[in-house]
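Researcher: Next sequence.
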Amino acid sequence: MKSTVTQGNENIVTINIVIPAKEADSAYNTAAGKISQYINVNGFRKGKAPRAVVERHVGVDRIQQEALDTLMPKYLNQAFYDNKLDVISQPVLKEYKFEHGKDLEVTVEVETRPELKLGDYKSLNLKAEIPAADDKAFDKALESFMAQHASTELVLDRPSSETDIVTFDFDGTCNGEKIQGGSAKGYSLDLAHSNFIPGFAEQLVGHNIKDEFDINVTFPQQYHDAKLQGQPATFAIKINEIKQRVIPELNEEFVKKNTQFKTVDELKADIQKYIDSQRENIKKSSAENAIFKSIVDSSSVEIPQRMIDREVASLKADYQQRLSYQGMDWAKYVEAQGGESKMNETLVEDAKVRIKNSLIIDKISKEEKISVEQKDFTEKLSQLSMVYGLAPDQLVKQFGNNPEFLTTLSQQVINDKVRDFLVENNKFEYVEVKEKVEA
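Model: Next structure:
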């Protein structure tokens, strides 16, 4: 086999491959025999018709295509190897010359990975910003834990407060018309964690059982029902029941009954361990962001437009899927982001960053000979088993024959190992910053 490569624009490479006549003819004959097993030819049993008869029945082009499908994977891989091509797209067959007794000539086009000039990525001294430590983090975590085990009891001697659970009837109208789906009987709402229209839950505070009153609110401009966007509405309310949370007493009896621990100190130590672990995760994430920003700034690459277009399409599809899960409309989301033009600019910039990060990870993994080992697969499968709620062997059984799943899994492993390598081989000064409070 011989192959020659011609470099085109935007990393498109044309490969001319010459396959020896003997192997081409053998593949052609095998293809004709294979096709003959699936066609009916008068006077011949399946698989027994001569090649000439098969050619007349299905056409030479059909047989040649079958032969090419068999030959090309082997010779393409050989051409990629011989010419040191880092291919990132499926080959496109442009033309071929297939004649009996002559070498088979094939021309294909492929897209290759753009060459990245990698900047410094080891032994750097970097600053990584992290949120300022919360002195009350432990108290908040303990309070949250105890709240999860709270019981409720009826309130009979006072009005509702902002932390109560209120059961009520409501009937909503907008511009004098009933709101579709805007009424209910015996609806319970946790006033401390309301997902109702802004201002609704607040107006349920300070009322007693059996009180009847109106609540006036304005629907958000981005509300899912276009008819109600930005419109004023009135809800007739009747309070049926008020409940308050009762936080249990933190003692050893509670700990033994509700946790795997035996003492209050053991529970507190576990909560502190969790807080420390979360803090370390934040530091690691911040370190990764700092090192990648540094590498991106010091590296250079010309990204082909078609590569950007593919990544933009992928990002857009991801956005749309996530928004659909949240019940949000894509067109309204785009409008909220400043319009289609502004959204496209954002997608393009995000796509460039993702592509560059991917190229950096690929380059460093090769430079440092970071590869995927069996133990890496085992660890990753163990992590995914918790996400999917399946045992690792069940995951393998369900996805093990899916090449896309295995490729994605391998890439995730490489990403994790490169990120760990970068954090371990650079020094970071962690700078605490206060979170901005919106006015």
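Model: The first helix runs from residue 21 to 36. The radius of gyration is 33 Å.
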